[in-house]
Write a structure and sequence with these properties.
mainly alpha
């Protein structure tokens, strides 16, 4: 059996070395998982705050659009019957809603959440593990 000198002058067996490497790799994997969890929590918190603010802006914007639509409808009432003016305004909003839905769907399909710190440290860990084999 191969013996390796230790810093205190003793000898370590190959089994002890393999056991240490296995333990180090287990610790490394746990640390990477903890890092990924932490990153995801931070990003989720930022996204939640932004979503809440956008929700409030959406409510205020809805009221604005409601009153602008009513103004447009009553403005068109000068040249069209009221029911037809309401229909024209509704059709304009239908086209706008369709365009926004398609644009939003495309943006969601293109999103790809990244964990840059985790990716970088995983690459470093892979290099470390390869160095341990040598």
């Amino acid at each position: 059996m191969t013996q390796t000198p230790t810093p205190d002058g003793g000898q370590r067996s190959l089994g002890e070395i393999v056991g240490d490497i296995t333990q180090d790799l287990t610790t490394l994997v746990r640390q990477e998982l903890d890092l990924a969890k932490t990153e995801m929590k931070q990003e989720a918190g930022r996204a939640g705050k932004g979503a809440g603010l956008l929700g409030g802006a959406g409510v205020a914007g809805s009221y604005l659009l409601l009153f602008l639509s009513a103004a447009a409808m009553f403005g068109l009432d000068a040249v069209l019957p009221l029911w037809l003016a309401a229909l024209v305004v509704a059709l304009v909003w239908g086209v706008a809603a369709g365009a926004l839905a398609l644009t939003g769907k495309k943006a969601l399909q293109q999103s790809n959440p990244q964990l840059p710190t985790t990716q970088r440290t995983l690459k470093e860990d892979a290099s470390w593990a390869r160095a341990q084999k040598s």
